[in-house]
Design brief:
Blueprint lengths: L4 H17 L18 H16 L10 H53 L6 H8 L21
Helix pairs in contact: 2-3
């Protein structure tokens, strides 16, 4: 696979254009990530409840903002297909990154095996060690043995 600079630029411009088209999008803070999630079953519940409340306004207490909830649901309906498309694209991009990275990693591992096998003959020992640092296990600093505490005496 080859991605030309023009293709990459065009794709990035598309993402930028999408962000510009939806300037009201928010990013949740870490402490907001626990908000209630409206999944498929919850969606049916929300739609039915809002419909019943709209049809029976006498049930709606003054502090319950039904109009705002309906506006939120309408915006959710507008964003859902966009989110589905972007998620599908994101998954496809991730699949390609995985496949491309795997291909490159396979060749690198085979090549590294050759460097380990024959690199010293060509004066590549230091380079082999540098490249191999990725696989080097980090040894734990030897901690002094804990002292045994004995009771009484």
């Amino acid at each position: 696979m080859t991605i030309t600079p023009e293709q990459a630029q065009s794709a990035r411009a598309g993402v930028t254009q999408t962000r510009a088209a939806l300037p009201q999008l928010i990013e949740l803070e870490a402490d907001e990530s626990g908000l209630l999630y409206m999944g498929p079953q919850s969606e049916a519940f929300v739609r039915a409840t809002l419909r019943v409340l709209r049809e029976n306004p006498q049930l709606v207490p003054p502090g319950l903002n039904l109009a705002e909830a309906e506006a939120d649901l309408a915006a959710w309906d507008a964003l859902r297909p966009i989110a589905d498309q972007v998620l599908a694209l994101s998954n496809q991009l991730q699949d390609n990154l995985t496949a491309l990275g795997s291909d490159a990693m396979d060749v690198a591992l085979d090549g590294y095996a050759q460097i380990k096998l024959m690199g010293d003959r060509y004066g590549l020992g230091d380079l082999r060690k540098e490249i191999g640092a990725r696989w080097r296990r980090r040894s734990r600093a030897s901690a002094p043995a804990p002292e045994l505490v004995t009771g009484g005496g």
